[in-house]
């Protein structure tokens, strides 16, 4: 399924900002990710990681909040940004894939509710303080599961 062609109606984005590509960056992510990355996420990266793309920024309709899913290149850049000595325990056990353009970071990992998409405050990167959003990126972006969790403090 092409996730970008089936985005939930609550999520509004600029289609012109989306371009396919980024194969080398995607291969790098697959190589270095400390967690197995789901096929639907890897397929999504292929849809949004073209030359010059930072990834889609979704505005949650009528909520005034945003969800930014990073392109492959941006995810690699953010990994370097967050790769600080005091974040090592967290960084070694998750793959961060986006944020809310504010305090929240989105990631894949195994928390109290099993493997899936989680969110946590960027100032408190720990599994203990993370909250599960959904089981899959398809559930999140297409079926709308966890949109309310992803955007609330």
Instruction: Classify the oligomer.
Output: single chain
**Which parts are unreliable, with pLDDT below 50 for 5 consecutive residues or more?**
none
The helicity comes to 25-40%
Within the largest sheet, what's the order of strands? 1-2-3-4-5-6-7
The whole-angstrom Rg is 14 Å
* Global mean pLDDT: 93
Q: What sort of overall outline do the alpha carbons produce when their principal axes are compared?
A: globular
Secondary-structure class = alpha+beta
- In N-to-C order, the SSE pattern is EHHEEHHEEEEHH
What is the strand tally? 7
Q: In this structure, how is the largest beta sheet organized?
A: 7 strands, antiparallel
Spatial gap, N to C terminus: 31 Å
> What proportion strand?
15-25%
Number of helices: 6
Question: Outline of this structure?
Answer:
With 153 residues, the protein is α+β, with helices and mostly antiparallel strands. It is built from six helices and seven strands; from the N terminus they run E-H-H-E-E-H-H-E-E-E-E-H-H. A seven-stranded antiparallel beta sheet has the order 1-2-3-4-5-6-7.
Q: What keywords describe this structure?
A:
153 residues, alpha+beta, seven-stranded antiparallel β-sheet, 7 strands, 29% helix
